């Protein structure tokens, strides 16, 4: 489903109506402290005569338990951040994180996450809007834009579109209390490709640590086989015809405030404790 224009977010005994994407972020931060709920709704000026605003789209009302952010609440498919970005059109906005700012601590600190998401990811979004303004690219969905810009040699557009998408996909690749074993369908494919989940973890860490300079490590679906690959700078498996399942960001801004030059410590912590195997399994579809 497309993102609603507005959202009602009830926190404690009050109801606040706000931009839908802001509502997601508000929900996530508030969910740590109590039960909250949100409801997508139409703009008030769209309400029909005699129809109360509270009854509009009641079938889409969602009641969420504490700290249980629904993976499908605002997503047409895939993860929250990725689907937000893929459902946007020009001008693009920064997609919300699918968890609270401190949810990934201590592996990724709140300080790092605030800078990485609010500064670095925002910069790519702003640069993308500037680059595609008044061009044919502004009418394209983000993934089509990435492929078209890459094929057409539009480096500035490709870099910023790909980094905007890569980061949204990366946020969904992580989760609080991640790691562990993948869902059975993905575990079976990993065992067939790598021999074991532990061997797959080692391959992911090795790819991330050995990527020279800036870039990404990925778990991808290559045909019917699961494999690990790494890309440089803004490059993405999308341009190689492979289907991304998980991403690990190894640009220094992803870890330097917490780990300085100890990239391996950061990557090992991410793979062991934060990897969202369910998101990867969902991407097999």
Label the overall shape: globular
Along the chain, the helix and strand elements come as EEHEEHHHHHHEEEHHH
Strand coverage percent: 15-25%
Helix content: 40-55%
Quote the distance from N terminus to C terminus: 17 Å
Strand order of the largest sheet: 2-1-3-4
Average pLDDT works out at 81
SS class: alpha+beta
Please tell me how large the radius of gyration is. Answer: 19 Å
Q: Report the major sheet.
A: 4 strands, antiparallel
Q: What's the short version?
A:
This protein is an alpha+beta fold and 285 residues long.
Characterization of this structure:
With 285 residues, the protein is α+β, with helices and mostly antiparallel strands. 41% of the residues lie in helices and 15% in strands. It has helices spanning 20-30, 80-87, 110-132, 142-151, 155-173, 184-194, 197-210, 256-259, 263-273, 277-282; strands at 6-11, 14-19, 36-41, 62-64, 215-222, 225-232, 243-249. Strand 5 and strand 6 form a beta hairpin. Helix 2 (80-87) packs antiparallel against helix 5 (155-173) and helix 3 (110-132) packs antiparallel against helix 5. The two termini are 17 Å apart. 41% of the residues are buried.
Quick tags:
alpha+beta; 10 helices; 285 residues; disordered N terminus; 7 strands; three-stranded antiparallel β-sheet
């Amino acid at each position: 489903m497309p993102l609603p224009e507005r959202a009602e977010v009830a926190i404690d005994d009050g109801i606040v109506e706000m931009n839908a994407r802001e509502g997601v972020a508000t929900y996530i931060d508030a969910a740590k402290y109590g039960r909250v709920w949100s409801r997508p709704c139409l703009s008030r000026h769209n309400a029909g005569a005699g129809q109360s605003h509270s009854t509009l789209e009641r079938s889409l009302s969602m009641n969420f338990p504490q700290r249980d952010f629904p993976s499908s609440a605002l997503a047409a498919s895939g993860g929250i951040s990725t689907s937000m970005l893929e459902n946007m059109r020009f001008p693009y906005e920064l997609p919300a994180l699918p968890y609270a700012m401190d949810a990934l601590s201590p592996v990724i600190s709140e300080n790092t996450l605030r800078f990485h998401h609010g500064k670095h990811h925002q910069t790519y979004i702003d640069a993308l809007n500037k680059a595609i303004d008044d061009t044919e690219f502004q009418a394209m969905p983000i993934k089509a834009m990435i492929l078209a810009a890459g094929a057409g040699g539009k480096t500035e557009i490709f870099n910023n579109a790909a980094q905007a998408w890569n980061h949204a996909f990366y946020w969904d690749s992580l989760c609080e209390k991640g790691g562990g074993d993948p869902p059975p369908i993905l575990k079976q494919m990993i065992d067939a490709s790598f021999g074991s989940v532990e061997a797959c973890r080692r391959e992911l860490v090795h790819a991330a640590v050995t990527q020279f300079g800036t870039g990404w490590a990925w778990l991808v679906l290559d045909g019917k086989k699961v494999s690990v690959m790494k890309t440089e700078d803004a490059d993405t498996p999308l341009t190689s015809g492979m289907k991304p399942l998980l991403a690990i960001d190894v640009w220094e801004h992803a870890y330097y405030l917490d780990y300085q030059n100890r990239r391996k410590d950061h990557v090992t912590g991410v793979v062991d404790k934060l990897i969202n195997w369910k998101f990867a399994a969902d991407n097999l579809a």
